[in-house]
Amino acid sequence: MDDARQVFISFGGGGKEKTMTSHYAVKAKACSNIAVVKYWGKRDEKLAIPANPSVSLTLDALRTTTEVSFEKELKRDEITIDGLKIPHDSPTYIRVSGFLDRVRLLSGKHVHAKVVSENNFPKSSGLASSASGFAALALAASKAAGLDLARKELSILARLGSGSACRSVFDGWVEWVAGRENASRSSYARRIAPAEMLKVHDVIAVINSGEKKTSSRKGMLISRKTSPLFWSRARAARTDAVLAKKAIRSGNFEELGMIAEKECALMHAVMLSSAPPLRYLDPKTLLLCDSIVRAREEDGLPAYFTIDAGANVHVLTLPQFSKRVHRLIRGLNVAESIIESGPGPEAEVISEGGNNA
Ligand code: PMV
Question: What is the pTM of this model?
Answer without folding.
Answer: 0.92
